[in-house]
Amino acid sequence: MQVRPIPLGFRLNTKRLALRPVTPADRADLIKLEADAEVMRYLNGGQPVPDAGLTDSNFLTPRGEEPEVLTAHHRENGAFIGWFALFDDGVVDGLRTAEIGYRLCRSAWGQGYATEGVCALVEAAFDPLGFDRVRAETMAANRASRRVMEKAGFRHTETVFPNPAPAIPGADRGEVIYEIRKTGKPIA
Known about the structure:
The chain has helices at residues 27-34, 41-44, 113-126, 143-151; strands spanning 12-13, 17-21, 69-74, 80-92, 95-104, 133-139, 155-160, 175-181. With 188 residues, the chain is an alpha+beta fold.
């Protein structure tokens, strides 16, 4: 199975967001984003993330060189909103599958940016990128991210309980997996 990154130069524009590949020039914004304990709450319990990022965690800490990551900026004023990522998981259960992820600055929460970015990335994942299915995962306790997935058309397909569960409040409720499939590819 060959896993491919997002094509070089890939860009997306929505009504309010400009998404472009992350570069080393984005490093300071990425570090500042992860310095916010509330942003990191459902990832590592709000613990500080070193400037170098984490290489041994089960979540991404981009630093500007990750081919799967797109930074999100406000189209009008250029303000950094956060990032979105699309990971090519290859063919899983006969479907070319991607996983989506995102992290937004707290100042951007509750304004529809996450849903707007996720919807645009899912649309691009199906056409022109050619995926059949896009999946997403979050803690069951993370109601805001779950709502984004639901508003973007994803369907909850599974709840898993990592063993051992991380020492994060709410981790005992498990991780929820959502997915959306390209039209004509029903969810079993």
